[in-house]
Specification:
The chain is mostly helical. 32% of the residues lie in helices and 0% in strands. Keywords: Hydrolase.
Length: 41
C-alpha cells in the first residue's frame, strides 16, 4: 500500500527552497505511487 504524503500549501517556505539534483532514480516509481495515493485520499 502506498503512503499518503503531506500536502504543502502555497506560502509554505519549503516551496521556495532549491532542490538538490536527482542522482538516484531508483525510488521514483515508489514516489509516483505515493503521489497518486495522496491525490485520491
Amino acid at each position: 500500500m502506498a503512503e499518503v504524503l503531506p500536502i504543502r500549501l502555497y506560502g509554505d517556505p519549503v516551496l521556495r527552497r532549491k532542490a538538490r539534483p536527482v542522482q538516484d532514480f531508483s525510488d521514483l516509481a515508489e514516489l509516483a505511487e505515493n503521489m497518486v495515493e495522496t491525490m485520491f485520499e
